[in-house]
Amino acid sequence: MNQECSVTEPEIAYAVSRAPGNERDPERASRGERAVENEEHNPSSPAEYGDEHARDLIKRLGSAENSMRSLIAETGPDSPAHDVLAVLQQAGRALQSIETRYLRLAWRMPVLMFELDPQGTTLFVNEAVFAITGYRASDLAGLNWWDSLFAADQRRNAGELRTILQSRDVSNYETEMTAKGGWKITVAVTSTNVYRRDGSLSRIMGFGVDVTRCKRVEAALAELDSKYANLFENVNDAILVFEPATEIILDANKNACEAYGFNTGELTGLSMKSLTRDPEQCESQIERLLAEGRCENFETVYARKDGTPIDILASCSVIEHGGCKAILSANRDITELKQAHQGLLHADKLAGLGQLVSGVAHELNNPLSSVIGYTQLILESNGIDEVVRERLEIVNREADRTRRIVQNLLSFTRHNGPTRKNVDINAALARTLELRAYEMRVHGIDVHLDLGEIPPVVADEHQLQQVFVNIIVNAEYAMLSNRRGVLKIKTETKHRDGAEWVQVTIADKGPGIPPETLKKVFDAFFTTKPAGEGTGLGLSISAGIIGEHGGTIGVESKLGAGMVFTIDLPRTGTNGESR
User: Fold this and answer.
1) What span, in angstroms and rounded, lies between the C-alpha atoms of 572 and 550?
2) Is the distance from CB of 332 to CB of 311 less than 8 angstroms?
3) How many percent of the chain have pLDDT more than 90?
4) CA nearest 108: which of 122, 125, 128, 124?
5) Which of 164, 264, 415, 512 has the smallest C-beta neighbourhood within 10 Å, fewest atoms?
6) Residue 95: which pLDDT band, with cuts at 50, 70 and 90?
7) Which domains does the chain have, with CATH numbers?
8) Using N-to-C axis directions, what is the helix angle for 386-413 and 425-442, rounded to 10°?
9) What is the pairing mode between strands 563-570 and 577-578?
10) For residue 563, what are the β-bridge partners?
11) Is 203 helix (H, G, I), strand (E, B) or coil?
12) pLDDT at 509
């Protein structure tokens, strides 16, 4: 059957009768109600708006009924054709009833349902279309969808949709329509094509779901997810997310990987036990977390991948991750902060010790002056036995050396402001060695001096002496394990960039340090000494002092070959740097 489909009166009447705002048209409403709800009306009526195959079948049934009536008229009332006619009429009513129920169901479906002709003209829509788009039946009846439901800026989308609808038997796609009020609606559509017997496209049937709100929620969730991801990755703290029962790490940000010495992604899948130095504390904190939901600002100790301990200040909370309960731990490395605190305590102790040394030195100065004065008077007397004279000279010489040590101690412990003047570097080194002479003698350290003819430099002598003490004390400590050692100190004049510089080289015969440690020796709070034996501030302060004098300080070392510090100072200082 090749009859073209068209919008039929019963179908549109029914749609119009159900559409909002048209209830006051009793005549059109009654026509629609009769066309759909009256199962006893002419069986050819449903063929006007039903499925094409159903229409064809109903026509065939109608033709068969007419044939049976003609046969009854010819054969009489007792003809067997009566029974055949009854069966045909029953089949027609059943088919009509099915068609009627289909229309009722389609009308009440909460999703958009539509039928279009091949050109996109409306054949049928249900009430959901009116509710969602704001159009009335009178707006859509006979109108082309591409013109009525797509704004000018959507015509390309409409053309693509039209191609999809006409070229595929079953299609699933999303499209954006324009409602009567001008707002945009996103609809997920499933459609199918109905073909005539000759294979040509008869009409397009489909249904759609308004997913506008879902799309907005998806966009909002995507935005939140993007914000969370940016916050998670860019926050300064190391963030770990782990499963409370197994303690398996589910996620970690890049700062956590960097802080603990792992490559990106390596932490995921590891156990928290591989990080924490105190598994029992970790388990107790997890129990507390699950009970209270949050633990804030507690200290613990983690270990880097290479085993280096890290002091951590952690705050944890219970979250949902992937639909399951998890723990989010925000960790801050406070290792340097604690070292700084220890350094301040140590500096405070040194300040107190300096005051004590200063007081003791003053107390020693007076009796030493008396000893030196009286021995000199006796030595100036005549008639002293030579043996006694030699012994008195020893007493006088040692008392004078002790006085110089005391004066050096007083000078070193004074907290005067920086004073720049011409300084004899060789003399400053000699005074520093006098301060450390006893310790080096006790530890079996030999000092080899190679002091050249050098000009004075403009500097703060007290600060330079502090630098020399720091380097020499570190050299002594490095050579303790050998029980003997050699400390070599050399001074010479260098010419660089047309200027005259004084170079001081201090070399020890200690065990040396590896390259990865060497590059950190001037970092604040970095130390290779055990806890409690060093603050990690000496070389950092020394580098700062030399820099303030416009000089440079460098270090070289190889394992088993000791360390060599090189200090270059200009005769007049500008700003310098450590290297």
Assistant:
1) 8
2) no
3) 6
4) 128
5) 415
6) confident
7) 9-214 (3.30.450.20), 235-333 (3.30.450.20), 334-415 (1.10.287), 420-579 (3.30.565.10)
8) 110
9) unpaired
10) 557
11) strand
12) 87
What does the DSSP assignment read for 270-282? -BGGGTBS-HHHH
Extract long-range pairs of 159-168: CB within 8 Å, 24+ residues apart: 162/120, 165/116, 165/120, 165/191, 165/193, 165/204, 165/206, 166/118, 166/193, 166/201, 166/204, 168/193
Structure tokens, 266: 């390596």
Q: Which residue has the higher pLDDT, 475 or 17?
A: 475
Tokens of 450: 């190679």
pLDDT digits (tens, 9 = 90+) for 510-520: 888 888 878 87
Nearest Cα residue to 435 out of 462, 416, 412, 418? 412
**CB neighbours of residue 442 within 10 Å:** 9
pLDDT at 164 over 70: no
Report the pLDDT averaged over residues 411-418: 56
**Residue 267: HSE in the Cβ half-sphere, 13 Å Cα cutoff:** 29
CA 28 to chain centre: 65
Q: Which of 375, 479, 477, 464 is nearest to 428 (CA)?
A: 464
Cα 507 to Cα 48: distance, rounded to the nearest angstrom: 109
What b-and-e string marks burial along 65-82, b requiring 16 or more CB atoms within 10 Å of the CB?
beebeebbeeeeeeeebe
Cα–Cα distance measured from residue 71 to residue 62, given in angstroms and rounded to the nearest whole number: 14
Query: 504 falls in which pLDDT band (50, 70, 90)?
Result: very high
Residue 560: both structure tokens together: 């088993």
Q: What percent of the chain lies above the pLDDT cut of 70?
A: 75
Placement of tokens 């983690």 in the chain: 302
Contact 569, 577 (CB under 8 A): no
Q: At 475, which amino acid appears? A: A
**Alpha-helix runs per DSSP H in 381-417:** 386-413
- HSE-CB at 12 with a 13 A cutoff on CA atoms is 14
* Of the candidates 335, 269, 328, the residue with the CA atom closest to the CA atom of residue 302: 335
* 537 close to 350: Cβ distance less than 8 angstroms: no
b/e burial code for range 382-417 (CB count within 10 A of at least 16 → b): eeeeeeeeeebeebbeebeeebebbebbeebbeeee
- Pairwise CA distance, residues 161 & 545, whole Å: 77
Beta strands 563-570 and 552-557 are: antiparallel
The H or E element spanning position 13 is helix 9-18
Cα gap 32→300, rounded to integer Å: 79
| Number of other CB atoms surrounding residue 252 within 10 Å | 25
Q: 15 pLDDT band (50/70/90 cuts)?
A: very low
Prediction pTM value: 0.42
Alpha carbons 250 and 264: distance in angstroms, whole number: 13
Mean pLDDT of all residues in 243-262: 86
